């Protein structure tokens, strides 16, 4: 037999259960998920908040039961992003970042002379680790430099420290200088440098260069080594017979272009047709008939005095001995030696 009291009690319980209000869809929290997620929950039903991957809970309840009131309790759960290890410093390079939190990405660059061994960027993963692994900036290396044909290595130096180095391990900025073998001329830059790309700048070339035998100048001579051929940097010397002057350098050299650095010639001296005149030679007044009684050499210059009749003053005009010819200025008037009363232009006041 069932007690009426019990009956009443159980019907009351039943009434309470059906009279409780349902809970609504729970409040959404940033970076959290709710399970199970429904539009409505009966009183007594449980939900669990959990942080999304990459986020961790900080304080607050995670598990709730829908109360008879149908109102979810206030939720103080906070999901915050995971933080990856500090990665703000890259030796010999730089890191670009705004935060180290999930899901940020940071990027890397190396200083000149270093290269990135690894990737340009890394991402903070859900597990709070950098992926891929952080790179390093490794020093740029050049392979041992090739030596050009017909050349020898003369210097190998580090530009930064000015110290010589073993050419087997050339770092960025290292420099090697080459010299061509005798008779060979260099085309291109004699030095090569290990670049930031890990290669060398362009190699020079050494080519054998011959020059033709120099020809003897008229009224002169040329000396050169008695060999079957003349090569790059061989030298020849020139000279002239008496009364002739060398026009050009005394010594010439076989250039890398296979010609001689100059082609000197011998120039004749000038006989002076004027019998008597005061002229300026190398800044001094001289008597032309005495100073140049053996003639003027090619290239020598004098200044003749001329008269300006209207103004009764004198001025000078230049004359140069050019390969046997001295042109006397037209304004110069030579007085007959009998005309002793006439004043020579060189004695008239200058204009
Ligand atoms: C580059 O990185 C790889 C992998 O981390 C490593 O094995 C290698 O030694 C590094 N090279 C240099 C030059 O640092
Ligand atoms: C490097 O050394 C050479 C001689 O050994 C010297 O003439 C030159 O000035 C030095 N350069 C620097 C940058 O120290
Ligand atoms: C050779 O190259 C160096 C740098 O590598 C440069 O400073 C120099 O001016 C170059 N010389 C010539 C003749 O081009
Ligand atoms: C060196 O490498 C860089 C980059 O790969 C290239 O642009 C350059 O032409 C190379 N230099 C030489 C001399 O090969
Ligand atoms: C030698 O040859 C080079 C190249 O052809 C030319 O530029 C130069 O002027 C020549 N030199 C002489 C002295 O003729």
TrEMBL record:
SMART domains: CCP. PROSITE patterns: SUSHI. Transmembrane segments: none annotated. One of its GO terms (molecular function) is heparin binding. The keyword Transit peptide does not apply. It is found in: Secreted. Residues 1-19 form the signal peptide. Residues 21-81, 82-139, 140-208, 209-268 form the Sushi domain. It holds the Pfam family Sushi. One of its GO terms (cellular component) is extracellular space. Its main location: secreted. Disulfide bonds join 23-66, 110-137, 211-254. It comes from the Eukaryota. CDD domains: CCP. Keywords: Disulfide bond, Glycoprotein, Heparin-binding, Repeat, Secreted, Signal, Sushi. Binds to various kinds of negatively charged substances such as heparin, phospholipids, and dextran sulfate. May prevent activation of the intrinsic blood coagulation cascade by binding to phospholipids on the surface of damaged cells. This is Beta-2-glycoprotein 1. It comes from Phyllostomus discolor (pale spear-nosed bat).
